[in-house]
Amino acid sequence: MELSLNNRVALVTGAAQGIGKGIALALAGAGADVVVVDIETDKGQATVDAITALGRKSLFVHADISDPAMVRGMMDKVAAEFSGLDILVNNAAVEYFCSIEDMTIEQWDRTQNVDLKGIFLLIKSALPMLKTSNNAIVVNIASVHATATIPDLAAYAAAKGGIVAMTHSLCQDLGRHGIRAITVSPGFINAGMTKVWLDSQDNRQATLERVNAMHPTGRIGTPEDIGHFITFACTDLGSFINGIEMIIDGGLTTKLHH
């Protein structure tokens, strides 16, 4: 066995930037062809260009994963362009920093529709292709906020906690078809909303140093940290990894629990 994804096809949602882009590039680096799904066309195409520069085939699909019709159309494009689908990474998400008192019903619903319902729609639509793979895996991206969270993230934390619970059931449900399912819960990653927050600080470097010091590793994570683990889990070397929630946070939650 080797750390190779040659002849595998992966689909990564939210892959235009941040963690999703890191995952897509890591999978391509191991030999997978990658479908890039996002609502941001220009950034999504840039990810495709980076993947093709690695010598892999890639396709960008513009889609809102909370829309059942768009998800079905996405899978039709994948089926037409590739021989099948082996790896589904459900990474796309939205979040609103907002108290329950101030949160609108629309914000709550949008969070659940993208972060949780979107995963259901993707898996349901991808299942016919995943069933034909000899080592299919579904990777659902949750968050440490499912375990230890902060104020003003109730909708996001609820959705991410739902992902963890859903994956426990999916492991058994999809296992009947030979498909594995795992959750990956990132902590502080220097991308996405964490990067936006850091960039908004009056003294970014001082804030970053303070956050780094919160971690037993002495640093926050990178998209590549997440991509490397997922790549391993998707290869034959990771074929016994199933049903788990892998928290990748540099040890942060071990301190929060105390």
Chain-wise SSE layout:
Elements: E1 9-13, H1 18-29, E2 33-38, H2 41-53, E3 58-62, H3 68-81, E4 87-90, H4 105-130, E5 137-141, H5 154-175, E6 180-186, H6 192-200, H7 204-213, H8 223-234, E7 245-248, H9 252-256
Parallel strand pairs: 1-2, 1-4, 2-3, 4-5, 5-6, 6-7
Helix pairs in contact: 1-8, 3-4, 4-5
Supply database-style keywords.
258 residues, Rossmann fold, alpha/beta, seven-stranded parallel beta sheet, single chain, 7 strands, 9 helices
Structural class call reads alpha/beta
Strand order, biggest sheet? Answer: 3-2-1-4-5-6-7
Mean pLDDT: 94
Helix proportion range: 40-55%
**What count of domains describes the coordinates?**
1
> Can you summarize the main beta sheet?
7 strands, parallel
Poorly predicted tracts of residues: none
Between the first and last Cα atoms, what is the distance in angstroms?
40 Å
CATH topology term: Rossmann fold
Report the CATH superfamily. NAD(P)-binding Rossmann-like Domain
Succession of helices and strands? EHEHEHEHEHEHHHEH
Structure description:
- The protein is an alpha/beta fold and 258 residues long.
- The protein has a single domain (9-189, 222-251), classed as NAD(P)-binding Rossmann-like Domain (Rossmann fold, 3-Layer(aba) Sandwich).
- The chain is built from nine helices and seven strands.
- The protein has helices at 18-29, 41-53, 68-81, 105-130, 154-175, 192-200, 204-213, 223-234, 252-256; strands at residues 9-13, 33-38, 58-62, 87-90, 137-141, 180-186, 245-248.
- A seven-stranded parallel beta sheet has the order 3-2-1-4-5-6-7, with helices on both faces.
- α1 crosses α8, α3 runs parallel beside α4 and α4 packs parallel to α5.
- It starts with 8 loop residues before the first strand and ends with a helix.
- 45% of the residues are buried.
- The model has no long low-confidence stretch (mean pLDDT 94).
